[in-house]
Design a protein that fits this description.
About 55% of the residues lie in helices and about 10% in strands. It has helices spanning about 10-20, 40-50, 50-55, 65-80, 125-170, 175-195, 205-210, 225-230, 235-260, 270-280, 300-315, 325-335, 340-360; strands spanning about 25-30, 35-40, 85-95, 100-110, 115-125. The longest helix is centred in the middle third of the chain and has 42 residues, at about 125-170.
Length: about 375
């Protein structure tokens, strides 16, 4: 290994810097224009317990903690290529084998003509400060997790209450709620697997949809039984009242949100509101209560719309007989692009056998 003092990368100013740096307790290094380290002061070598020859070039990286090495290398390369100053925090192995956090400050060096010569770096041991900071962050993280857990428990209690109210108005045995909950999850999972709406269907989004699906008809608790359970066709006036259940459901859930909040970060009540208010909207804009069209209808409501209509078709209602599964599938397909989002209908076609299994397993008594 040649004498770095004779290297072209060492100007007179850098030699003076090196000589002064060798007498300071700080950890100091120098690198040439090729990015390779060409000198370390006595403080660095005493800290690492390694020789100058071992640290030359990229040898020093052997002492960097494995978890910090890639980020350290990436940051150094990025700033070196841009000739920028940098600050890095990483763990460096001390001579006793302990890793210590250090703050590494690198500064580009140029000669009077502006020629880039390399970098000078100064490092300080910040281990105690970093450990204290990490302990504080862990405490904050623990407190945040406890708060989220408390908020989720509160939300779960609220969902149980609202679900009980919705179940009280469900048709017959309540299996409609169980089935539609399973249907929407099947559709959401299929959309995920086929790469559709991935930005709106994270795993958390799918879980929220599954958990709040039972609330899609919560507004029916405000609809009189003589309308809700009428055995024959509704009059125009009765139909107008029946249609209000979507907006009433959204109002009920919005009131719950204002009172109890949605502090768990899971967005549960917002999902529930979107489903309740939008599951009778139609893709072509002819639905209710707002006449929303296409993707202006929340995705969760568009998914619920397919599940809800399928279940209504295949089950007995006070005003109709049950359709066969095959007839219901054909009807859903016929409504593709008019009542329903075409992509969700495609997912439904792929999941139709699972829909039949769910129907058979949770049939009304």
């Amino acid at each position: 290994m040649g004498n770095p003092k004779n290297s072209p990368s060492f100007s007179g100013a850098r030699i003076e810097f090196r000589d002064a740096a060798d007498n300071t307790p700080a950890l100091i290094w120098m690198a040439g224009e090729d990015g390779l380290c060409s000198w370390f002061n006595r403080g660095w070598l005493e800290f690492t317990g390694r020789t100058m020859e071992q640290e030359f070039g990229n040898g020093w990286v052997e002492g960097v903690h494995p978890q910090d090495l890639q980020n350290c290398f990436d940051q150094y390369t990025e700033h070196f290529n841009a000739r920028d100053s940098f600050l890095l925090e990483y763990r460096l192995r001390r001579s006793d084998g302990q890793y210590r956090w250090i703050l590494d400050s690198g500064t580009p060096v140029f000669d009077p003509q502006g020629t880039f010569l390399g970098y000078n770096g100064v490092c300080f041991d910040i281990h105690e400060r970093k450990e204290s900071e990490n302990a504080h962050n862990k405490k904050l993280h623990h407190l945040w997790e406890c708060e989220k857990k408390r908020a989720r428990n509160k939300e779960n209690q609220l969902l149980e209450i609202l679900n009980s109210l919705a179940l009280g108005k469900d048709d017959d045995t309540g299996c409609h709620i169980i089935r539609t909950q399973a249907y929407v999850k099947a559709l959401a999972n299929r959309l995920q697997s086929t790469g559709h709406y991935l930005d709106q269907l994270t795993d958390r989004d799918v879980d929220n949809l599954f958990r709040t699906a039972p609330l899609h008809d919560v507004g029916k608790m405000a609809i009189p039984d003589h309308i809700l359970k009428k055995p024959g066709k509704l009059t125009e006036e009765e139909w107008q009242v029946m249609q209000t259940h979507a907006s009433l459901g959204a109002e009920i859930l919005s009131t719950a949100k204002l009172k109890y909040g949605d502090k768990g970060g899971d967005n549960l009540l917002n999902t529930a509101i979107d489903i309740a208010s939008g599951h009778h909207e139609k893709w072509d804009g002819t639905g209710y209560p707002q006449g929303l069209k296409g993707q202006d209808i929340p995705l969760v409501a568009r998914i619920m719309a397919v599940a809800d209509v399928y279940d209504a078709l295949v089950c007995v209602r006070p005003y109709k007989k049950a359709w066969a599964h095959e007839q219901a599938v054909e009807e859903i397909i016929n409504l593709k692009g008019s009542a329903f989002d075409p992509l969700i209908v495609e997912a439904f076609i792929l999941e139709q056998d699972l829909f039949k299994e769910i129907l058979d397993e949770h049939h009304d008594a």
